[in-house]
Structure formats: structure tokens, C-alpha cells
Predict the structure of Sn-glycerol-3-phosphate ABC transporter ATP-binding protein UgpC.
Amino acid sequence: MTTLRIKDVFKRYPNGAEAVKGVSVEVGDGELVVFVGPSGCGKSTLLRMVAGLEDITSGEIELSGRVVNDLEPAERNIAMVFQNYALYPHMTVRQNLAYGLKNRGTSKSEIDSKVDAAGKLLQISDFLDRKPSQLSGGQRQRVAMGRAIVRDPAIFLFDEPLSNLDAKLRNQMRLEIKNLQRRLKTAAVYVTHDQVEAMTLADRIVVLNHGLIEQVGTPAEVYSRP
Ligand code: ADP
Ligand code: ADP
């Protein structure tokens, strides 16, 4: 089965900038696809269109077999992870993890069990009562992952999630993300300008340039070429 189908998608911003010029990509169930390319190639725009944060000028986006062009982000069964974590500073880690679920009307006992499970999975169980300001960068990134995980999304959307971390932590978190994604078997799109990141994470890489796909393939296929 295919989790995500991007069909002939174009994006023209109101100022006339053509950010995406006819892109078609499929992401299979459980697959991790990395969109890679230089700054301005259109990778964030593409991801934001999948998330519903940006209108599609033309083309079609399908999630789990359903066209989502006209659906709000909250109706899309996606979860995003950003570099700035987007955590609520005044809430504890537990409250941050529970927040979205409360809005959905999930029962207290279900919220508690999901938050505890995510805490264990991400090794942040000891920090659930702290505020984000009392956490290290890596721990904050784990909480951001936890917020995505408790949603049980059809797909994770990562937008340069590690670019605020130092090189050592970035390598570590990259492995953690890969292991987590394998374990959960949830499809994922991961956007980065970093080829090493693309190579170590991806099942498949989509190389974008000037709003077009330049290459698609496994890391070995994409980076073994002369
Ligand atoms: P990337 O994520 O690969 O750096 P983006 O998707 O952010 O690329 O941007 C692709 C192109 O679209 C760039 O030329 C950028 O300047 C332009 N762009 C991005 N966001 C907007 C916007 N809100 N309005 C106008 N142009 C934009
Ligand atoms: P809901 O559970 O109804 O989606 P939330 O408060 O969780 O309500 O989310 C509000 C909006 O923010 C929605 O558009 C939702 O898709 C988005 N959102 C919240 N958290 C995340 C996340 N981790 N990843 C992606 N989107 C999120």
C-alpha cells in the first residue's frame, strides 16, 4: 500500500515565485523518504503542502488513499517535527505531550497511557514534570518527537528537525529517529539540505533542484554516480 501520493504538484506563491514545478512522488507504507536539495529547491514548500500548511496551486496529494487537497491540517492524520521543537514553554513535558490529544477529546486514561508509552520509547520518562527550558537540546527534540508519536499519524513529516543541534548530537538523534521509525513502521518524509543525513536515514532519496525532481533512488543509487 501507499501512504502518500504526490501527483503532478505545482506551487506558485502569490508573488509569482514558482517553488514546485510538477513533482510526483509516492511514499510506501513504513517507508522513510528523504527530500534533499539546496536551499530554495522547494523541499519545505512540498512538505508544507502535504501537511496542509500551504495551498496547492495544481495537482493532487493523497494520504492513505484519500485526496486531502481541501482538508485542514488537523484532518490529515499527519504529525510534523520541526527544528525549533514548537514546544509550549509554560507547560511541562507531560502537558506538552498530552495537549493535542486533549483537544481531540481523548480520555484521560488513554492520554496517560500514550504519554507514558512515548516517554519510555523516547527515554524521557524522568523528565515528564520538567518545563522545556529545563531540558537539553536533545531532550527537547525527543519531546517534539513524542508529540508527533502520540498522535498515531499515518505519516511523520520532518522539516530539518536536527539543524539546531551540534554535530555530535545530530548524529545521535539521527540514529534514534531512524530506529524509532523502523520500530513504529510509520511512513515518513524527511526534509534536509544535508546529504550525509539523507544518506544515513533514507530508504529512498528524492533530490530536488529548482522545484523539480533531479533524481530518485536508494542512497547507494543516488550517491554512487560519478
Ligand atoms: P527549501 O525548503 O528547499 O529551502 P522552499 O520551499 O522554502 O525551499 O522555497 C522554494 C522557493 O519558494 C524559494 O525560491 C523561496 O524563495 C520561495 N518561497 C518560499 N516561501 C515563499 C513564500 N511564502 N512566498 C514567496 N516565495 C516563497
Ligand atoms: P487536533 O488533535 O485536532 O489535530 P491539535 O491541537 O493537536 O488538534 O493540533 C492543532 C493543529 O496543529 C492541527 O492542525 C494539527 O494537525 C497540528 N499539530 C499539532 N501537533 C502537531 C504535530 N506534532 N505534528 C503535526 N501537526 C500537529
Remarks:
- The chain has seven helices and ten strands.
- The helical segments are 43-51, 93-103, 108-122, 137-149, 167-184, 195-201, 219-223.
- The CA atoms of residues 22 and 184 lie 31 Å apart.
- The chain has a mean pLDDT of 94.
